[in-house]
Amino acid sequence: MLLPRLCVAALLGLTLTLSGQAVRAEATDTRVISASVSELAEVMQLDDLFAILREEGLAYGQSLEADMFPGGGGPQWSGAVDALYDLTTLRIGFESALDAALADDPAALSEMMVFFSSDLGQRVVRLEIEARRAFLDEATEEAARVASDNRMASRDPKVPLLRSFIAAGDLVEMNVAGSLSGNLAFMTGMSESGVYGQGLPQEEMLSDVWAQEDQIRDDTTSWLFAYLGLAYEPLTEAELEAYVAFMESPAGQRLNAALFMAFDQVFRQVSYGLGRAAGAAMLGQDI
């Protein structure tokens, strides 16, 4: 159930538009979510996960202000970030995208429900959420990275299983693609805010974004091994093997692709809004 990090890239920044209209993510599909997808969202504890994603986003907003316009955001900036990471908006958009990707395959949905409703599935979900929450603390994340390096150096038997899990979900490349997409959306929002005058040419923005690819890939790989190592440390090798087997199954592959697609669709809008808002803040406009 691993979702991407909100901000793996070096500062290319998410800033916000300062008009009330631009501060919020684009309106999302309001259709009724199918019962099966709603049940899957519940068993995967998306409420708890998105509460943590919101905390990550609010913290990232503070770091952007500190890096890009120290002390210049004030309550307007914090209000804009708060609106962009509104839980209801994020959840509606995410579940709508998930429904569009999965509702037409009841057989695969049934397999997903069977796994995540099982004792192992519920344990995995709790461990992933607990590790994500723990990573809100920078010292904990750094300690997990050190532990990951030590685990590899000592040839811990779980390391090959973690590699298999990452490969099953193509997690490095999926995270890198999501980060590049989000950074381009952010830069587009910045450009449209007027902070660059007439705006940046698309080719220049693409060049700037792609220049970060190697750094993002390296950091993503390190983060994944640290996070997964912390999350799955309580699992036995047999339990982790069973989870990898599910991820390698057609249902697991379908779910992984749907989760990343839904995440990208929702948070690309957030990145764009942050970019516009940051540009406006740098220009001294009202958010």
Major beta-sheet overview: none
Summed over residues and divided by their number, the pLDDT gives a mean of 88
Report, as a whole number of angstroms, the end-to-end distance.
35 Å
The percentage helix is over 70%
Write the element-wise H/E pattern from the N-terminal end onward: HHHHHHHHHHHHHH
Can you walk me through this structure?
- The chain is an all-alpha fold.
- It has one domain (20-282).
- 74% of the residues lie in helices and 0% in strands.
- It has helices at 20-23, 35-43, 46-68, 74-84, 87-102, 106-117, 119-134, 138-153, 158-168, 171-192, 202-210, 213-231, 237-248, 250-282.
- Helix 9 packs across helix 12 and helix 13 packs across helix 14 (250-282).
- The longest helix is centred in the last third of the chain and has 33 residues, at 250-282.
- 43% of the residues are buried.
- Mean pLDDT is 88; it is low at 7-30.
Quick structural gist:
With 287 residues, this protein is mostly helical.
Properties at a glance:
mainly alpha, 287 residues, 14 helices
Topology:
Layout (H helix, E strand, L loop, with lengths): L19 H4 L11 H9 L2 H23 L5 H11 L2 H16 L3 H12 L1 H16 L3 H16 L4 H11 L2 H22 L9 H9 L2 H19 L5 H12 L1 H33 L5
